[in-house]
Amino acid sequence: MRVTLKDVAERAGVHPGTASRALNLETQSLVSEATVRRVQQAAKALAYRPNPMARGLKTNRTTMVGVIVPDLSNPLFPPIVRGAEVELSRAGYTTIIADTDNDAERERTALAVLQSRQVDGLLIASARREDEAIRQMHEQGVPMVLIYRRTDGVALPAVTGDDQRGIELAVAHLRELGHTSIAHLSGPRELSTGLSRQRTFRQVVAETGCDTSPELVVECGTYSVEEGARATRELLDRARPTAILAGNDQIAVGAIDALRERGLRCPEDVSVVGFNDMPFVDKLSPPLTTIRVPHAEVGAEAARILVRWMTQRIASTSTTTLPVELVVRGSTAPVPRP
Amino acid sequence: MRVTLKDVAERAGVHPGTASRALNLETQSLVSEATVRRVQQAAKALAYRPNPMARGLKTNRTTMVGVIVPDLSNPLFPPIVRGAEVELSRAGYTTIIADTDNDAERERTALAVLQSRQVDGLLIASARREDEAIRQMHEQGVPMVLIYRRTDGVALPAVTGDDQRGIELAVAHLRELGHTSIAHLSGPRELSTGLSRQRTFRQVVAETGCDTSPELVVECGTYSVEEGARATRELLDRARPTAILAGNDQIAVGAIDALRERGLRCPEDVSVVGFNDMPFVDKLSPPLTTIRVPHAEVGAEAARILVRWMTQRIASTSTTTLPVELVVRGSTAPVPRP
DNA sequence: ATGAAAGCGCTAACAA
DNA sequence: TTGTTAGCGCTTTCAT
Known about the structure:
The structure is a homodimer. By secondary structure, chain A is an alpha/beta fold. In chain A, 43% of the residues lie in helices and 14% in strands. The first copy, chain A, has twelve helices and twelve strands. Chain A has a six-stranded parallel sheet with strand order 2-1-3-4-5-11, sandwiched between helices. A four-stranded parallel sheet of chain A has the order 7-6-8-9, with helices on both faces. In chain A, strand 6, helix 9 (192-207) and strand 7 form a beta-alpha-beta unit. In chain A, helix 2 packs across helix 3. The longest helix of chain A is centred in the C-terminal third of the chain and has 18 residues, at 295-312. Chains A and B meet through helix 4, helix 5, strand 2 and helix 6 of A and helix 4, helix 5, strand 2 and helix 6 of B. Chain A binds a DNA duplex through residues 2, 4-6, 14-18, 20-21, 24, 27, 30-32, 35, 50-51, 53-60.
């Protein structure tokens, strides 16, 4: 049978209440040192493990947090999850990962499940700009931190890479290579990352004297290889840019595929820049020039903010922006001389 | 405040015990149909969600299962997890993922955490052939299913891809291309997959009349790109095979890197075959010829077996082997004519 | 078919 | 400093 607190108390010759106090850091000071030692010994001898359900039922805390990602198979997310998990487990929390499959309805379900599980907090990497589920959850006062993607008009802390700086770096790099006709395959505008990168792109492109024709910006419906390819075909049907700045790496991969379809070589004919520096993009053909975002650190930082909120009731609402850097590989080259 | 069963019972005008019976499928038959309806309506109206902790405290079940993977950042595992999660959530279970970072000590910790969380069962993709932690957990009667990697001498159900057939297909493909000097960069022998693929390789190579020199088999310490590259260098220092069968895709990627370092082209000089068909290997340069394993289905099947064990106490100990197929891409070519 | 009551293992307010 | 007591929300015998 399972060892309970009562067993420990009996063996130590104290009341279960005392044993409880002796075993919990916060209440340990209420118990004499000698008793603490006796109880701890007994606990050790019996290999006592507190029953988290009993504890949770009493305290209304579970020391579990939910992490919601849009797609775990997207190599972008495991490092984030990993970074978060390390911090969370350090603080004594267990992580429950939910995958929404990029679906608003499933996000709602996941949120409901996690709520009924009484998670103490949430890390959310799947937020859309309009996200009723998140808004509602927020109103209930559940501690939560957004990762990368923000929700409009909700006062929630967020941790992101520096999207603006990333776009600046990418455009500057292409400018140095002589490109002035730069297209942008934007992420979906319903995601804050898609919108903000697109906005920054338009702005920076104007500031640096590039071609600002509207047909150089094509929006992808999702951050996927397929949409990247589709958008590229659409782009090429009406323009002939010498460079493409993709909304993320998956889109960039799709773009390179579509360029090849049309008989265009990357980087000789068209340069392509990604965003995120996902694992394996250095092995692609050509190796992808992209913006590196410190994913694990983003996850870790979000976890730290969440832990502070959960434990010390310090609810920040500010956005933490982590620095990004340009990684130049083989998918960008000087503008071709006609 | 949280809606409890008592609230539902009050609204329906019945006793909480009755409400409980009405809401649980298994006890519903003990309650009159009319009452069931009334209670269900009340529950719906109040958006009642049972408190899993209270339930668990009473029933000693958590409806949570732990999924242990060696490395979530390895693109191989998210599909497995996903497949499992879909099945598990369908059966009402919540998934807790633990990442061991390929470390036996962390596996032990993860197992301990999950045990103290009282998960109802475990899916384990991180098993080593000698794995004391798993053996102990098994002795405690915790339902668990192994995925891919088996533990020696432990009577546990497992779900794997058909490693033997995979190796056969790969070697046959290379043979058809005229290769007779085929090397194998084996996975670690301490993992069942490493050992069994290596054994099968040796056997098949002998049966098909290939070169069986022992120096054509080099073992990698881990399933990683780095080890794949290292092993390839070691291999090339003492042999000049025309084809390499890698223990998995990561090793294959490392092999291609190392070949390039030595000025050898893939596939013109040396053909390379991977194993697993991880996401993105079709985008590599060259696109990797490999063995496709139905990862999501492996995860799903393992989940089904686990659910059966947990719910119906049917503990199988047999291994389920799912069919694999050869995917020919660009990394294999006819043997070069000298 | 339903109500009553006990209790899962723990913590916390109160007493001593 | 320690013991006592109540109760978190649920399920499940036992009565009725």
